[in-house]
Design goal:
Radius of gyration: 16 Å
Number of helices: 0
Distance between the termini: 8 Å
Structural class: mainly beta
Number of strands: 16
C-alpha cells in the first residue's frame, strides 16, 4: 500500500497542501496553531460580513485513486461552530470550487452551526445529500472521521470507529478509477457568520495498483 499522514507539526503548513484563503477584509488564513498539543491546523472564518473561505486541498493534484482501496481519516474538531451561512465539508473531492455543492465529485462529511454531522456523495451520476449520521459535535470536541472506499459501489463512513449512515448506499462507481484529493473547506457566501475548524491529523492509504 501507499500511506500518507500529516500531524501538522512545525511552524508552517506542509508544502504538499494548497491553502485556501479567501477574504477581502477579514481573516481566513489557515495556520498551525501556536504551541497546540500534538500539532493543530486551524481554519478560521471571522465575523466580517463578506464571502470567505478557509481550507486545504492538494491544489487539484489528484493522486488518490477511488478503486485502489482508498481510505481517508481525520481527527477534527469544530472549535467554533459555524454560524449563519457558514459550513464545513471534509473528505475526498475532485477539483476545488468555492461552493461545496458545485464540486463535481465528492465524498465527505458536512457540518454547520448546530454541530450536526451529515454525509454526502456525488460521482456525477449517483448522489446523496445531507444524510444523517446521528452524531452532533459540541464546540471543541475532537472526533475521528473515516471514509472507506474499499467497495466503490458502497463507500462507508465512520465516526469514532462506528459506522454511520449505514442504511444509505454511497455508490461512487461511475468512474471506477476516479482521481481524488483530500479536501477540508470552511466557507460562507456572505454575511457575518464565523467558524473555526481544528484538524489534528489527516491519514490516507490505498493500494498501489
Amino acid at each position: 500500500p501507499t500511506w500518507w499522514e500529516d500531524d501538522f507539526h512545525g511552524d508552517s503548513i506542509g508544502a504538499l497542501w494548497t491553502a485556501i484563503d479567501v477574504s477581502a477584509a477579514g481573516d481566513s488564513t489557515p495556520l498551525l496553531a501556536a504551541d497546540a498539543k500534538n500539532g493543530i491546523l486551524r481554519l478560521p472564518l471571522d465575523v466580517t460580513s463578506e464571502a470567505q473561505e478557509s481550507g486545504i486541498t492538494w491544489g487539484d493534484q489528484r493522486p488518490l485513486v477511488l478503486n485502489q482501496g482508498l481510505n481517508i481519516e481525520f481527527r477534527l474538531a469544530l472549535q467554533t461552530l459555524p454560524t449563519l451561512l457558514s459550513e464545513v465539508v471534509f473528505g475526498l473531492a475532485g477539483d476545488k470550487n468555492a461552493v461545496a455543492d458545485t464540486v463535481a465529485e465528492s465524498l465527505w462529511f458536512k457540518a454547520d452551526g448546530d454541530g450536526v454531522i451529515v454525509v454526502e456523495n456525488d460521482d456525477t451520476t449517483n448522489t446523496n445529500d445531507d444524510i444523517a449520521t446521528g452524531t452532533t459535535l459540541t464546540a471543541g470536541t475532537f472526533a475521528v472521521f473515516r471514509i472507506d472506499c474499499a467497495v466503490i459501489t458502497d463507500c462507508k463512513f465512520y465516526i469514532n470507529g462506528a459506522r454511520v449512515a449505514a442504511a444509505t448506499t454511497f455508490d461512487m462507481s461511475t468512474v471506477a478509477a476516479l482521481a481524488l484529493q483530500p479536501y477540508v473547506h470552511l466557507a460562507k457566501a456572505s454575511g457575518a457568520g464565523l467558524g473555526v475548524v481544528d484538524v489534528d491529523y489527516v491519514k490516507i492509504w490505498q493500494k498501489r495498483s
